[in-house]
Amino acid sequence: MKKILILVGLLTSMYAIPPCELPNQMVCAYLYKGAMSSEIIIVNLSRDNILVKNISATLDGQSKSISDLQLSPGQSYTMLKSRYDDHLKKPYYYIGSMDYKTIK
Q1: Number of structural domains, the chain?
Q2: DSSP element (H, E) containing 33
Q3: pLDDT, tens digit (0-9, with 9 covering 90-100), for 14-55
Q4: What pLDDT is stored for residue 14 in this prediction?
Q5: How far is residue 7's CA from residue 61's CA, in Å, rounded to a whole number?
Q6: How far is it, in rounded angstroms, from Cα 33 to Cα 30?
């Protein structure tokens, strides 16, 4: 019984902020929180190749800026990743604005 409760606790501690906040937004960056890790992911939900002109983010004290990242349709890119010793740890993150354009 104790193992089942631990498993349920780990599963309920995983969450992801919805990738795109607007219905017509096709390229976005979001936080994924697993049981023992967090990631900031950029995803291309469009049918076109896109070029991310620039984006910056911070996750648990790590900062990263990206320029000229090309993503194919449906492709995602893990920008930052953080691992934890405890599943109760909450991530501190910031995702800056992102500029991108469609590549024909």
Answers
A1: 1
A2: strand 27-33
A3: 555 556 777 778 899 999 998 899 999 999 989 999 999 999
A4: 53
A5: 29
A6: 10
State how far the alpha carbon of 87 is from the alpha carbons of 21, 73, 92, in Å.
Answer: 26, 33, 14
**CB contact at 8 A, 71 and 42:** yes
List the one residue out of 63, 55, 67, 53 whose CA is nearest residue 101.
53
| pLDDT value of position 41 | 94
- Return d(Cα 100, Cα 27) in angstroms, integer: 8
CATH number at residue 24: 2.60.40
Distance CA 22, CA 11 (A): 27
Write out the residue range of the structural domain in which residue 92 sits: 2-103
Alpha helices in 1-104 (DSSP H): 2-12
Roughly how many angstroms between the first and final C-alpha of the chain, as a whole number?
56
Residues present in the chain in total: 104
2-9's contacts with Cβ under 8 Å and 24+ in sequence apart are 9/87
Q: What is the pTM of this model?
A: 0.79
